Amino acid sequence: MKHRTLHPLAAAALLAIAGCASTPPPNQELTLARAAIDEAVQADAQRYAPQELTSARQNLGRAEAAVQRDDNLVAARLAEQARADAQLAAARARAVNAEQAAEALAQSLEILRQETLRNTEQQ
Amino acid sequence: MKNYPDLLRSIARNVFAGGVACAALAAGCATIPESNAMLEDARAAYQAALNDPAAVQAAAVSLDRAENELARAERLLDEGADVELVEHHAYLARRHAEFARERGRLAVAEQKVAAADAQRKEVLLEARTREARSAEQRAEARGLEADAALATAEQSAQQAAASEARAEQLRAEAEQLQSQIRELEARPTPRGLVLTLGDVLFDTAEAELKSGAERSLDELVTFLEEYPERNVMIEGFTDSRGSEDYNLGLSERRARAVESALVSAGIGRGRIRAQGFGEAYPVASNETTAGQQLNRRVEIIISDDSGQIPERAPEAG
Fold first, then answer.
1. What dihedral angle (degrees, nearest 10) is formed by the CA atoms of B301, B303, B309, B313?
2. Residues of chain A contacting B91 with CB distance shorter than 8 Å
3. Residue A32 sits at the chain B interface (C-beta within 8 Å)
4. B304 and B192 in contact (C-beta within 8 Å)?
5. N- or C-end of chain A: fewer Cβ atoms within 10 A?
6. Domain coordinates of chain A in residue numbers?
7. Could you report the predicted ipTM of this complex, rounded to two decimals?
8. How large is the average pLDDT for residues A80-104?
9. Residue ranges per domain, chain B?
10. Where are the beta strands (DSSP E) in chain B?
11. How far is CA B254 from CA A60, B29, B57, B302, in A?
12. DSSP of B147-214, one letter per residue?
């Protein structure tokens, strides 16, 4: 009886080990990461979120290197991290951009307010 | 082949041991928290995002992802999984949490941008309202100025009317004076009004006023009572008959007699001066009886309002 029953965890571990050897390159993850980086660049992340963009590129580079040495599991993780970095970079760039726009608007609003006040006083 | 089940058993045992180790670690968790720097960072980032209302509102999905990754990382850590795997999920958890916060920032900034347009309209509306109000105030100020001008004009008109009334009163008073002067039969001269009393008031060579002569002075008394600022000079004259000294004395006495009569009638002595000039200053020829009669006279000079009476100019020649 003991011989027949395989511990479920043991089976899972076996499968994982077996899978490891034959994991294909994480092409989809890599594509998504590259697209996310492109999007971040479009959002001006180079200027407003350079650290996050750099992380994204470094992680993508490491992922590609991992693919080269057939370490596809690590490559998939790194590609996923690169994508998360790039998404954060794009979001931060957009937020900073919008904050600057809001600040500029607030300033022009203040100028407008002062001008209209001055005009009224002059009359 | 026979080894295979053994191998499996061995693996199972190891896995079981790992589970026990995990359980031991989990038990340890209750007292000593698991220590992994990246997981700590992820927890802090997730907590910060949860405390950020903008992030909670704008990025619920990202927060869910962060929560799931965090839970997974913690579970893997509890299970004693590969540190790299734990850190992978911790990293993703932190990134999702940070992403949520950036989405919150973006939403807040976008709300500000959207609000700016409304505020711009509000500022312009306020400006127009202020302009309208200030125009209204200017109009009101002009209205008040006009009212003030009208009031001033009315006041001026009233003053003019009052002045006119006063002028009218003065005219009436002047007319009254004139009529009274006419009644006195006084005639205006450069020295003032001159009232001439003929010699009929006196007996020949006498300085006593005839009885009833006071009545002739009544009008003068009335006039002086009415115009207390006016003073009188009483001057007596004679014709050229008789000695000069006698005539001087007689004219003096007659002037004094008139003065006494006025004082008796209640006119203040300070208002009256009396002087005799004798036969000087004749008003007619002493060659004729009629002329002599005209020269025998008492002249009463009534001052103007100032009370002053110029002295009689020295007789020519």
1. -40
2. 81, 84
3. no
4. yes
5. N
6. 22-94
7. 0.79
8. 95
9. 15-113, 176-302
10. 187-189, 192-198, 232-237, 272-276, 297-302
11. 149, 149, 127, 18
12. HHHHHHHHHHHHHHHHHHHHHHHHHHHHHHHHHHHHHHT-EEETTEEEEEEEGGGB-TT--SBPTTHH
Rg (CA), chain B: 65
CATH architecture of B176-302: 2-Layer Sandwich (3.30)
The token duo for B207 is 């300085």
Give the HSE-up count for residue B257: Cα atoms under 13 Å, Cβ half-sphere: 23
Q: Which pLDDT belongs to residue B31?
A: 41
**Closest in A2, A77, A116 to B88, CB measured:** A77
Mutate to test the interface with A, among B76, B102, B105, B133 (most CBs of A within 10 A): B102
pLDDT digit string (tens) for chain B, length 317 residues: 445 555 555 555 455 444 444 444 544 444 445 578 999 999 999 999 999 999 999 999 999 999 999 999 999 999 999 999 999 999 999 999 999 999 999 999 999 988 888 888 888 888 888 888 888 888 999 999 999 999 999 998 999 898 888 888 888 887 877 777 776 777 778 888 888 877 667 777 777 777 767 677 888 888 889 888 999 999 999 998 889 999 999 999 989 988 988 998 899 999 999 999 999 999 888 998 888 888 888 888 988 888 888 888 777 64
Window 62-81 of A, Cβ < 8 Å to B? 74, 77, 80-81
Q: Sign of the CA dihedral B30, B33, B34, B39? A: positive
The number of beta carbons lying within 10 Å of the beta carbon of residue A26 is 22
Of A84, A98, A113, the CB nearest to B109: A98
- Does A84 contact B15 at a Cβ distance shorter than 8 Å? no
* Stated pTM of the model: 0.49
Report the amino acid identity of residue A27.
N
Strands B187-189 and B297-302: unpaired
Chain B touched by A39 (CB under 8 Å): no
pLDDT at A22: 64
DSSP for A21-63, please give it: HHPPP-HHHHHHHHHHHHHHHHTTHHHH-HHHHHHHHHHHHHH
* Token pair of A45 as six digits: 């992340």
